[in-house]
Amino acid sequence: MKNALKRVMVITCLFIGCLSVNAEEAAVDALEDLKKQVLSINRELFILEEDLLFPASTQVAFFVSVDVGHYFKLDSIKLSVDGEVLTQYLYTDREIDALKRGGVQRLLVENITTGEHELVISAIGYGPKNREYKLAVSHQFEKDTDAKLLEFSIKDDLSKQQPVLSVNEWN
Amino acid sequence: MGILADMLSIRFKKNAHCFIAATLVFIASALSAASPLLELDGQDNPYYLDLTQEIELKELPFGELLFEYYQENYFSALTRLEVAELRNEISVHGQPVSMIKGVMYLSYGMLNSAESIFIELLKTETQDTVLAQVRFFLAKTQYLNGHPEAAEIHLNNAAKHLSGELLIEAQLIQSQIQFLKGNIDSAVAILKNISFDSKHGQFARFNLAVISLKQGQLEQAQELIEGFRINRSSEDVEKSLKDKINLAFGYFHLERKQFDQAYQYLSQIRLESIVSNRALLALGWIYYESQMHDKAIGLWQELSQRDHRDAAVQEALMAVAFAYYKNGAKKEALESFVTAAASFGTQLNIISQATSQLEGELFANWLNSKGVQGNNVFDKWVAGDVPVTDLPIEYYLQQVVATNKFNEWFKRFQELSHLLLVLDKWSRRLPVFEQMLANHQLRYQTIKPKAQAHLSQVVDQSYFEQMALWNSIISDKLQQDDLMLFATEDEIALGNDFDRISETIKKLELAGIDLEDQKEQLRRVKGSLIWTLGDEYGPRKQKLMVAKEDAENALKNFRLQVEKMQQAESKASGRFANYDQRIIGLKQQIDDLKLAIEQQNQVATFEMKTVLSSHLNKRKQELDFLLAQTELSIAKIQDEAINKLLEKQP
To answer: Which residues contact B394 (CB under 8 A, 6 or more apart)?
Structure first.
């Protein structure tokens, strides 16, 4: 009688154990499925939002990339277009690290009319010996009916032993 | 020794064993909560891909993706990647993108998606180092997915070409697989190759050391922690680990009555440590067993001043009373037992309050307050920096958050909460999109007639036909060498006047009037005009040609603008076609998803509550036992006192 009772208890325990493992697995699978669905809907909504807010005919996107080590440590960036300040951005250490590893930041997306425009970009940071260092450059660009992609690139110029800020047009 | 003393002795002896076991379990679970060895979690251990090889950026979206990936914003990075894939924006950086996608899925806990990507990569990749990385990530995915055998094969194949953090993690997984297979020696051998400089290696070695101690393998445990030192600059987590390992070693020796060795370990534990109560309790027992009863009582009394919700403090309350009793100070023993009983009663009430708080809104509110604070919400708790509040439940929550089971469900809850936040954000924005869409449509309806009117005006003005006519006139006149082509308005008027005079002279001559002098004068002034025009021929022709070119260019631009206007009109008419339907569809999808997420959140909440309930029940049972023991002891002392009184009576 005792043995039978023990056996029932063992089987019950195993059954409960199995149920618990199955519940666990089901929860893990359900979570993955939900993540997949939310990612998909997030993508759809991201595109919808961009279409509505920034149609290609007026869209100008500004990017920042960094390839510096010794001569410049980026702290903040300021962007003006046609004399109007569009953004001032202060970087976190995490962002700086991501930029240094090769990441490109989408700094801003704006609606700008077609035609000629002038942008001024200034980057504030620290040079060797932790001295404040400011880089600035102005650039004329033509906005047509396609989306415009402009990259601000900060690089170490080894020959001049100083950082260089330049503007690259991707289209 | 009387019955009470025997009973107490057995009770404490038994309890000491239980306590040691419980401590080890506690330490193991506390350590494993933060350790990749026992609970390897892709989300907690974001190892970056080895992208040391410089990749020339050829597509901006790839750079954007890296920016999010390196910040561990996997959800944003995956969204960006999916958008880029849909728009075909990333085609050049194919291989690294697939690899990053797999790693991001792995880091974001989407193991099935990650596994299928790595399996595909394994089929196509040929370069040894990259292949090793693929194998490693596939192995990690399979291990987390509950397939250690498959993971082991891939890890064995990959190990030769791995380096740095990936190699360390590969060794951790290999060691864990050996542990699961019961090959403790192999697990230890692998772990011993991992330096203490690696945080994950550090946790894993401590974990295995604790397990070795539980199995009575002191030397193995010592080998595992050998070389680990802390100093003032060590991080809190390292100091906390050191405290916990000292506690485990201290109790190991105490259980074997090796008091000197136990003292060596226990006395090194910091007073502010999360395990200091247990250390003080054990040190008291060392003093007690070494016949230094006063010191033991002093230490336990000190410990009794601490938070009475702590199990070690509760043990100390009993120990003080027991020590007084053994010293023959029965009055003090009785008082101490009464104090202990009162405290246990209070604690039982607190547990009862905590249980009802668990059922009420409080737990849900607590979860919501912690749910979105990221992965490191309990880091300080594990290090001992616990935010004790007046709410009884909070204290017990602090104890269960160190357990793996609670943590796993809590992480799921956090992830689900994040998904809900994302969907809530879109739910709030969708009405704005609808409004914007309506505005766009209204604007289109307003602008359309104006644009059409403008276009038809352009067509009516027939600029292009006019220009063609002028071109033909210029070309004819140039062929005819007609200098009047370059005449100014005044000169043309003058030329016209001359023509009229010439006509008049002809008419008068027909009437028989002699006008030879006037004809000669007219010829001379006409010649003068032609002379002037001939003199200015070069610059004027140049000016005309420039003006002609400018006009043609202006017309070309004008034509382009007209075309763009026509294109814009055709685009605008279809630009937001079906957007309203899309928005309605997305709204429905969001609502359905929110519902599904909330259901999963309820499951997670229920599971967390279950863990907490079990913990509260366990504590209640322990307190019930302690209270019963205390009450029995009080009764026994009172009996003894009554018996003594009766003996004294004649």
So the answer is: B366, B387, B388
User: What confidence tens digit (pLDDT) does each residue in A56-104 have?
Assistant: 889 999 999 998 778 899 999 999 999 999 999 999 999 999 999 889 9
- Best probe of the A interface among B41, B49, B64, B67, by most A CBs < 10 A, is B67
SS (H, E, C) chain A: CHHHHHHHHHHHHHHHHHHHHHHHHHHHHHHHHHHHHHHHHHHHHHHHHHHHHCCCCCEEEEEEEEECCCCCEEEEEEEEECCEEEEEEECCHHHHHHHHCCCCEEEEEEECCCEEEEEEEEEEEECHHHCEEEEEEEEEEEECCCCEEEEEEEEEECCCCEEEEEEEECC
- Sheet-wide strand order for A115-126: A84-90, A73-81, A115-126, A132-143
The residue to which tokens 């561990």 are assigned: B72
The B residues from 302 to 331 touching A (CB cutoff 8 Å) are none
The token duo for B324 is 């007084």
Both tokens assigned to B610: 């279950």
Contacts with B290 (C-beta within 8 Å, 6 or more apart), sequence order: B259
pLDDT at B35: 33
pLDDT value for B541: 87
User: Distance from CA of residue A16 to its chain's centroid?
Assistant: 46
pTM: 0.72
Confidence at residue A63, expressed as pLDDT on a 0 to 100 scale: 97
Query: Given this model, what pLDDT does residue B39 score?
Result: 42
Residues 6+ apart with CB under 8 A from A83: A118
Question: pLDDT value at position B152?
Answer: 92
Judged by CB atoms within 8 Å, which residues 416-455 of B form the interface with A? 416, 419, 422-423, 426, 429, 433, 436-437, 440
What mean pLDDT do residues B408-414 have?
A: 86
B214-270 pLDDT tens trace: 888 888 888 888 777 777 777 777 888 889 889 999 999 999 999 999 999 999 999
List the one residue out of B336, B424, B416, B331 whose CA is nearest residue B368.
B416
Q: Is the pLDDT reported for residue B568 higher than 60?
A: yes
User: For strand A105-111 and strand A148-157, is the pairing parallel, antiparallel, or unpaired?
Assistant: unpaired
Residue B214 near residue B24, CB atoms below 8 Å:
yes
Q: Quote the longest CA-to-CA distance of chain B.
A: 189
Residue B341's pLDDT is what? 95
A129: left (phi over 0), alpha (psi -120 to 50) or beta: left
